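Subject: DUF4352 domain-containing protein structure
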Amino acid sequence: MPLRSRLLVAGVGAVLLSSGCGGGGEPASTAGANGRPLSAGGEGPAEEAPEPVQGRMGQTVRGKELAYTVREQECGVRKIRVGVALGYTADGQYCIYTLDVEVLSKVPLEFQPHAQRAYTTDGSQYNGKRLSGREVEPPEDDLSPGQRTTGQLVFELPADRRIVRLELRPGNPMLAADRARGPEAVITVG
């Protein structure tokens, strides 16, 4: 068999083996030698997420990595202007929260609006939206140790719903390790 064909066969075999196809029929273990789940990196046991710090609107809530102060709330907003004639129109309503964030961690962090959650009186969950324009500006994404930033978190929800609490967290929901992390702070707003 020519070298090129042998390399192709070897490459296909390696892909099949690494993807779990080609034998065994059993799922790969996600547990370490002690039977406890592994962390997202597969090294050692996964850490239990600490209980989130509880607080109320207007109060500074200090988590492990960030401090949060939700200062203002405006719900019932139908349109957010981007320019003179352009804007975003809600199917129901936008709720806009002005938020101060301070980095307590000694390492840089991300704070993504779409990683934040709002919960209504009926328990429905809504993710934050990244909207910016003349009327709203989200907090900065990439934060350095000690940095403070202020911006607006925007949630879109049906007009007949009322938000009662926000769950806030550092991180990027596109990263598995950040998705697995629970909220750092729970703020009662309603």
